[in-house]
Amino acid sequence: MIKIQLNGEIQELSKRHNIDELLKIFSIDPNKVAVELNRTVVSKDKYITTYVSNQDVVEIVTFIGGG
Amino acid sequence: MIKIQLNGEIQELSKRHNIDELLKIFSIDPNKVAVELNRTVVSKDKYITTYVSNQDVVEIVTFIGGG
Amino acid sequence: MIKIQLNGEIQELSKRHNIDELLKIFSIDPNKVAVELNRTVVSKDKYITTYVSNQDVVEIVTFIGGG
Amino acid sequence: MIKIQLNGEIQELSKRHNIDELLKIFSIDPNKVAVELNRTVVSKDKYITTYVSNQDVVEIVTFIGGG
Amino acid sequence: MDNFKVGSKIFKSRLIVGTGKYKNFQETADAITASGADLVTVAVRRVNITNSTEPLLMDFVDPKKITYLPNTAGCFTSEDALRILRLAKESGGWNLVKLEVLGDEKTLYPNMQETIKAAKILVSEGFEVMVYCSDDPIACRQLEDLGVVAVMPLGSLIGSGQGIPNRMNIEIIKKQSKIPVIVDAGIGTASDAVIAMELGCDAVLVNSAIAKAKNPILMAEAMKNAVIAGRQCYLSGRMDKINLASASSPAQGKINN
Amino acid sequence: MDNFKVGSKIFKSRLIVGTGKYKNFQETADAITASGADLVTVAVRRVNITNSTEPLLMDFVDPKKITYLPNTAGCFTSEDALRILRLAKESGGWNLVKLEVLGDEKTLYPNMQETIKAAKILVSEGFEVMVYCSDDPIACRQLEDLGVVAVMPLGSLIGSGQGIPNRMNIEIIKKQSKIPVIVDAGIGTASDAVIAMELGCDAVLVNSAIAKAKNPILMAEAMKNAVIAGRQCYLSGRMDKINLASASSPAQGKINN
Amino acid sequence: MDNFKVGSKIFKSRLIVGTGKYKNFQETADAITASGADLVTVAVRRVNITNSTEPLLMDFVDPKKITYLPNTAGCFTSEDALRILRLAKESGGWNLVKLEVLGDEKTLYPNMQETIKAAKILVSEGFEVMVYCSDDPIACRQLEDLGVVAVMPLGSLIGSGQGIPNRMNIEIIKKQSKIPVIVDAGIGTASDAVIAMELGCDAVLVNSAIAKAKNPILMAEAMKNAVIAGRQCYLSGRMDKINLASASSPAQGKINN
Amino acid sequence: MDNFKVGSKIFKSRLIVGTGKYKNFQETADAITASGADLVTVAVRRVNITNSTEPLLMDFVDPKKITYLPNTAGCFTSEDALRILRLAKESGGWNLVKLEVLGDEKTLYPNMQETIKAAKILVSEGFEVMVYCSDDPIACRQLEDLGVVAVMPLGSLIGSGQGIPNRMNIEIIKKQSKIPVIVDAGIGTASDAVIAMELGCDAVLVNSAIAKAKNPILMAEAMKNAVIAGRQCYLSGRMDKINLASASSPAQGKINN
User: Fold this and answer.
1) Given A25, D66, F19, G98, which is the most exposed site by the fewest CB atoms within 10 A?
2) How does DSSP assign G82-130, residue by residue?
3) Do residue E47 and residue C33 have CB atoms under 8 angstroms apart?
4) H52 contacts D28? CB cut-off 8 A
5) Catalytic: which of G98, G174, G224, G254?
6) Kind and range of the H or E element at F109?
7) Closest CA of chain H from D64, distance in Å
8) pLDDT digits over E193-230, tens only?
9) Host H or E run for residue H19
């Protein structure tokens, strides 16, 4: 049982997950987002090998309308 | 007893008056106004000799603020 | 032998001509011009019956570029 | 005999002079100018005690018309 | 389709072009084609008696395809203007004409007294009269009441390219008019034409801005697109101007919140 | 063809549109189509964790067909801007980005100190940086010297629709720049866009003027034609303005001579 | 001294003020004093029969010290205007009058047809006529030829405070006129008055801009100084505008040379 | 009294004049007198070694009566500017100085990066710094936060006489500033100065517009009155602009009612 801050909100995970699993949990299409772990961008090819730990801060972003 | 239209309103006069009397009746200073009788200007020197008759239309005007 | 003023210049004609002949003399296409005889427009259907006399003033105009 | 650069031009002096003397030599009113010795401002109270040496760069400036 | 109706005629383009000031008739024809205009102003002048073989505008711009709008350019009295337009009518059965009676050589500003006098007569003779006029809303209404088919207020002096300094007058004229309002004179560049159309005008007349451009043909195309853009802009209803900034991207969802 | 080249990319349209402020994604997509733009700005924001099924911009505007230009709208420090653009780069391999570092909420005027700081770092990280900036010719040159691929001076405040009050600055910037100059912010109507292009700008960025029009789709089309008209006008070389009138019809040949 | 001569009269001030729209007669009088004006417009209206004791303008503004300029405000026909001015003449022997014949209630734009008609008659009756008119140079010349003593083209609509959008017309009118040209209507702020004078106008008429200011008395003083500044500026001949910078301090003598 | 306070000093006049570009020192002195200015900018330059008898500005304009404001005109780096002002300070104990660091010869536009750098140092050395700057509201706030005593945004390019194209920026700067805002550069005519003051500016700096007028002395007086008029206008609160007409004479009491 770990706690992370995901997009500004606390989320509880049963165990440490890698980014790939994390996206699946929230059913997010990896091709449409970018992920930041503790203020560092995680490149797509590291989604499997990168695990989130307790207290980690994760941001998952996408493109929206903007001027 | 005659009726005249004075500045757009019907006024009753006991008898035919000249302009000079007419102004006095309404206590109007002759030096501050101009008088029109039936659409013709009455010059100041004719105030004594010019009489208003029944049905006459009289306008007494002065200067007011304007742009 | 008659003299007319044509478009501002004196022209001599062997005899009285109608407008139709006049245009032919100067090889002008009737369909591209309008004719004025002594300041009155001559309608196309009167070109045959309208004759120019000595001293007449004739204007033959067309459309040119203009703003 | 020393050489200094004064306002961009080489000047020869018979000997080392202080700023006060220097101004006198060129008959310049001390109250109307400021003096810079080797890019450092010389305050008026140091005119007597500040001497120019060979190779020194001196600027003497005043106020002129400007926008 | 958003056609342009004036008098009894309907045109595809809201850009009317003049045919003066071009290098030659070929350039005139090419510019008209590039501009997409189907209504062009023309002047009435004496034919060359001494050389009747010299080419005419009609040889390059076919009046059956492009409607000629005879004008009275250069007339300084109502009499002259009437004389010209009666000839124009005869020469091609033209009914739709552009009246302009000028006040002086220096400004080419309209003489509205003479213009109104001539308009009255032309209407009575059955002409469909489009009138070059000042941007005076009252004079424009008087012309409309006389029965002219369009008012053509000047944006600025003919051939000056100074644009439309007094936009409020043009707007007032447009708001009050039931007949087409066409900005005539003063258009110097594409944005001037767009502004005229944004003000709600029904059409724009352009001559010098095209003929006097370094590249008249390309400028003719620019004007075509400008008039279309201005019309679409007017129809779509512009945003309000505001005095402070308004973000185009939402604040919500910012990662640094 | 008169294409628009910025950095290593080439675009057909000189109209760049923003994707903010629309009623919904469908309207956004329709407006883009009507505008003819092939480069559109987008913002980077958190995905909705709680409802991952809600539609995304990408579902309506295909990044393979329309190039996304990630911006840093809402960033007030260089750090925030860098963070956003690094994420943007990762999320789609985007290299061409729009940097904007704002000075305050009220004006959304750029903070040029922070902007220049961020631009320097982004260039060093291999980004192709287009920069929203003030209309300060010196700052624009400093940005160009840093290696940005385009300067985007504001016409007036973001979303204000106030147009381009200071045209001389834009002209000076254009004349001195080897990289594209794009008027960003302030365009409120079609004529504003035409004026920007007439000043010689390489492109125009429009968002509010389209999204906030009563009919955004028609306004998008108006802007498309406006940018084309302005570009053609610039290329064709406008007539000179003159202070008096110049007749469009010749005096020669007048019957009343 | 640079006096202002109109008709047979000479005035010290080139600022003519209206006397309408003030809170009361005292404020009117104070504003006139602050403005330095020695010529003020007044309207002609019926006296109050039912209460002849109510104060009159004359009780506050002495016509012996300040010249009254009777106007025909509110007249929409030449007949009405003639009637008013004939009464005005009688009421104080006034000869110098301001003619205005309006075209409609909404714009208060002059009806030039009626204005010219009335002007002709007034001149023949020996009036010295100053005429509120459009900024139409031809109509202004026609009025001058009729013998009016001053033309008073509007800057913009009466009471609109929109200033002088069409400066070229005012300049043309000034250049061609031998009689005084006075900008009437539209002045909304001090700079508008200065601009009118910089264009070469002989005087300016202001009413709403003073009466409707938060502090009318101070604004009256502002207008006084504005007209003086504008006149001096016109007489001194402004510098030319240039398109690039020109240093105010000399390069020569710089220590870093 | 409505004095003008900047830093620790108080001045009577809100018109600051430059002393450059005059025919000679006598004209400079006469213009200053006519302008009523008690604060004038001066440049720092090498004395003429070869001819120390040639007259100096000080011989015509007494620094005890008229405060000299040393500027750094012609400096393109913060180092040069610092050097000049340190000399200026010594030469007369001047503390109140005008900093300008220019970006290039052609535009004389400020280099804001260098300007901010120099301002920081000057403030730390105890100078009271007035700063010539761009009309960038964010940069102006940064300067205020650094402790400068006045910001002097350019209206337009130095010596161009183009006036104040971007009025919104000046207004924003004025609204946000606790220190005086002075429009510097670009004033070409009296109305430009009035407009600057109407926008709420605390003072105006004028040089070329006076020195380059045909009659500099009269123009100096014009500018004096212009600044007074503009200030009074600002304080009195102008009427609102309206889009239609508003009669200045009452309808009530009309004889034709």
Assistant:
1) A25
2) HHHHHHHHHHH---EEEE--BS-TTT--B-HHHHHHHHHHHHHTT-EEE
3) yes
4) yes
5) G98
6) none
7) 5
8) 999 999 999 999 999 999 999 999 999 999 999 999 99
9) none
